[in-house]
Amino acid sequence: RKELGDVLLHVLFYARIGEEKGAFDIVTVADSLAQKLIFRHPHVYGQVQADNAHQVEQNWEQIK
To answer: pLDDT, tens digit, for every residue of 40-56?
Structure first.
């Protein structure tokens, strides 16, 4: 738990620096992550059919 807390602190810290510089904030960071996950998991959020983990992995390699 402590290590995850450290990671979260770093994310929030860097987001604050980005906000102070007018570059981004924690909301845009979270939104970017959500969009990335949606794009990279079309078998969950889109119309792509994946019947097994191997197909999911193949789709992942094609997308990234």
So the answer is: 899 999 889 999 999 99
Helices and strands, number each (H, E), in the chain = 4, 0
Q: Give the Å distances, CA to CA, from 19 to 6, 27, 30, 53.
A: 20, 10, 13, 39
Non-local (6+) Cβ contacts of 24 within 8 A are 15, 18
Whether the pTM exceeds 0.85: the reply is no
- Taking alpha carbons only, the member of 40, 8, 38 closest to residue 26 is 8
Q: What would you measure as the largest C-alpha separation in the chain, in angstroms? A: 46
Distance, CA of 57 to CA of 62 (rounded, Å): 9
